[in-house]
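Open question from group meeting: does this chain pack into something compact, or does most of it stay loose? Before anyone orders reagents, we agreed to write out a predicted structure and look at it together. Recording both the input and the output here so the notebook holds the full record.
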Amino acid sequence: MWEGFRLLQENVQQQGWRTYLYDAEQPYTPV
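Structure tokens returned:
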């Protein structure tokens, strides 16, 4: 899968699923 997904998995553990769902609906953009 796209590289953003790997980073997202780490964010899910720290920030929660809310961040995952938000980014999943949009193109991955580094903050």
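Observations to bring back to the group:
The mean pLDDT is 61.
The helical segments are 3-15, 17-24.
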